[in-house]
């Protein structure tokens, strides 16, 4: 982007050529435009001259390729829309703080739409934006004959210290903290070798922030927002930030621990594909500062507020729709069996096979034809195979090298030499698997394997698909079916138990409950934690036997052809009673065995 406004460049160049004295120049920019210390050092005077000359020569001076800084400048039109919205709730705000101001679209939009603003405080880490921002602001102030005071700091918001003088002034005034902090995660930054990360020690002083620093992957925006709220939640005003929805959820989730003084929390969803050409679920996050801490948030659409829901904490549970949850709260508890995640091997091109013929030949992901013994080969399902209600066919197969996690794999050499050879031809790929779980484990180890994997019947569900569907999985070719690690399963030894559980899981009570606690805008809406919350016993207790039998007969019987009587549901209900517990896991949770 090149600013092609030659006349302003010439004017400014003329002005700063009069003197090299930074004090005289700063006095000029203060009197003329309201900047407090336009130049922070003599070097900056030279920088500015170079910048102006370059632009006058029409040279390319600015490039937008700073991925590690999450550098997606907010389109001016959208900044105006956001500020128009804000102007209705923050009529008397005098101070605007933009912590990551970039080229300043939010600042200009706020000046255009919120007349009460008199003081602008900006921070931006990239020096290339300083002159663009300042020149745009000068042009704006000249055009609209506005008079404000401006502080700009070319610094990192994580280390920037707000001056006591500024904080003193803030005691008397209402503020708006406004901006669009970078939407990148620390892991993405680390992969890019970026240093734009908060130092953990800086965050220790925040209330309860330790609990968050423990998280393995977090958004930089989340830290910037915590940082600002922690600094300013005793001052009057609002914070308004564009960020991913997950950031807003995390703030609300953590607030009972952090006790941040924010209320009237709102999430205004917008189409980030349309506005930023990015695929992310994002919103305008707005909260009132200096307000008793709140733990819920109203979620609606930025452009159309007809659908509203409230998400957050309700009766010590974190839910996606409080109104819906109130109706299904009685089903929130513990599932009677243990949900398990499918097989993890991190080597699909070697481990996931297709059948080539019936003589034991398979094709792997590298399109290599391989002959293997049948014994360690099992039918294998992916998330996309679980869209059906009943699964009795598989497109894929996998090699199951262990019966339980950590089992020695050397037995394969003697018993299944073809399989052993194939695995050994690819041993380096197995050893290069990145995840630390494979470290110090036998070659060809897999995870998500145990007695349950070999159960004859299973109910499977995809963790990834938005539409919830519990699939009944039959053995295929007399073999138990394996699922990949995007799926979750409950194992059953008896067909009848599997079918009755599947019937209950597919009833509307379960789907309504799941809708009220899951977040459809996450990559994996259904996790083990979420599935374990379905209180099967309560579902069974609350649905009349005749009703569930009816549902089975009308909706499901034609898929199974398996006769069930009222008595079967009665016995099932009796067996499910928590007093009939069979297994207890390491966390002392009780389950029924399969
Ligand atoms: C998504 S852009 C938004 C810019 C501007 N707020 C807007 O809405 O157009 C994020 C901005 O944050 C700046 N930034 C990234 N990390 C920063 C940090 N640690 N301190 C200050 N600014 C930072 C980037 O340089 C970039 O200009």
Give structural notes.
The protein is of the alpha/beta class. The protein has an 11-stranded mixed β-sheet, sandwiched between helices. A 6-stranded mixed β-sheet has the order 15-14-13-18-16-21. Strands 12-22-19-20-17 form a 5-stranded mixed β-sheet. The protein contains 24 helices and 24 strands. It has 3 domains: 6-56, no CATH class; 67-314, Vaccinia Virus protein VP39 (Rossmann fold), CATH 3.40.50.150; 340-591, no CATH class. The chain starts with 5 loop residues before the first helix and ends with a strand. The protein is elongated, with a radius of gyration of 30 Å. S-adenosylmethionine is lined by residues 69-74, 100-102, 105-106, 123-126, 129, 156-158, 179-182, 196.
Strand adjacency order, main sheet: 1-4-3-2-5-6-8-7-9-10-11
Quick one: biggest sheet? 11 strands, mixed
Which descriptor suits the 3D outline? elongated
Number of separate domains:
3
Report the mean per-residue pLDDT as an integer.
90
Strand portion:
15-25%
